[in-house]
Structure formats: C-alpha cells, structure tokens
Amino acid sequence: MNDDPASASASTSSSASSSGPSAADSVYTGKAAPDAATDRGWLLGHFKDPADPRHSKDVEIKWGVHPKGEERAQWVRGEERTALQVLISGRFRLEFPGRTVVLAEQGDYVVWGRGVDHSWYAEEDAVVLTVRWPSVPGYRADGPDGPPNGPSEE
C-alpha cells in the first residue's frame, strides 16, 4: 500500500456507474499551488462548477500566493462571512477598523466574524490559507482580472 500523498493523484482510478456518479467521482486530488493558479487562488467555494466536488455553498478555501507589495484593491465592507486566515510563509498584514494584525511567523492566524470590514497587504512575498463561511457571491474587488462576478479576494 502506498501512503505517499504525492502519488495519490497518479494512482487514482475511476469507475463509471450507470445509476449515477460513483464515489470516485466525488473525490478530487490536487496540488494547492497549480490548482489555485487557475482560479485566482480559490480551491473550493460556490464559484466552482456544481458537478465539481470542490463546489460548496458552505465554505470557501483559498491558497493565496501574494507577491511583496500586493494589496486588496478595496476594503471589504458589510462582511457577511466569518473568516480564518493562516500564514504559511512570508509576512502578511490585515487591516481592520481601529486595528492592524501582522501575520509574521508560519502558523500565525487571525479570525474575524460577520460585520468586520477588512483589507490586506503583503509586506513580503506571502502564502496564506483562507477559510471563509458561508460561501456567498459579491465580494470580488474590481481589478485587472475584470468585474466583480467571479471568485472574490480575501
């Protein structure tokens, strides 16, 4: 038996069933960096195709890779979600009304709830894992990727 997660995607098999999707169709394996690069960092959320196991109206997960100096295009106002953000590497600053939080060491994290406006800035090249719930549309900041109709930023 191979317990190496890296080889899991290479050793998966799929079997079709005439009565609908098999359990294997509900399992997705991947790598965060390349998968995230195809959808502005988002690995899971309401914006994925409903047939994709990564589709969820309950939670969003982002593998955010941010070069030094990158910042959110505009503040999130009227937040309806709760969020957890964990620093994987680098240095990342979050701005809240009346408070600044700097994630400086691997594993540093911050949680904020509904109604908490926020913005962010990458003080160094940074990777952050963001988990938000529920997954709702309408938070994407306008930017070089187009109008606010796709996956939102942190």
Shape: globular
Distance between the termini: 39 Å
Helix content: under 10%
Helix-strand category? mainly beta
In terms of DSSP E residues, the strand content is: 25-35%
Task: Give the tally of β-strands.
Answer: 8
Number of helices: 2
Task: Return residue spans where pLDDT drops below 50 for at least 5 consecutive residues.
Answer: 1-20, 142-152
Question: What is the typical, i.e. mean, pLDDT?
Answer: 81
3D architecture notes:
The protein has 154 residues and is mostly beta strands. The chain is built from 2 helices and 8 strands, in the order ααββββββββ. It has helices spanning 5-8, 32-37, and strands at residues 42-44, 60-66, 82-89, 92-96, 99-103, 109-112, 119-122, 126-133. A 5-stranded antiparallel β-sheet has the order 1-2-8-3-6. A 3-stranded antiparallel β-sheet has the order 5-4-7, with no helix packed on it. A hairpin with a 2-residue loop joins strand 4 (92-96) and strand 5 (99-103). It is globular. It starts with a helix and ends in a 21-residue tail after the last strand.
Layout of helices and strands, plus pairs?
Blueprint: H1 5-8, H2 32-37, E1 42-44, E2 60-66, E3 82-89, E4 92-96, E5 99-103, E6 109-112, E7 119-122, E8 126-133
Antiparallel strand pairs: 1-2, 2-8, 3-6, 3-8, 4-5, 4-7
Q: How is this structure best summarized?
A:
The chain is mostly beta strands and 154 residues long. Helices cover 6% and strands 29% of the residues.
Summary keywords:
disordered N terminus; three-stranded antiparallel β-sheet; about 150 residues; 8 strands; single chain; mainly beta
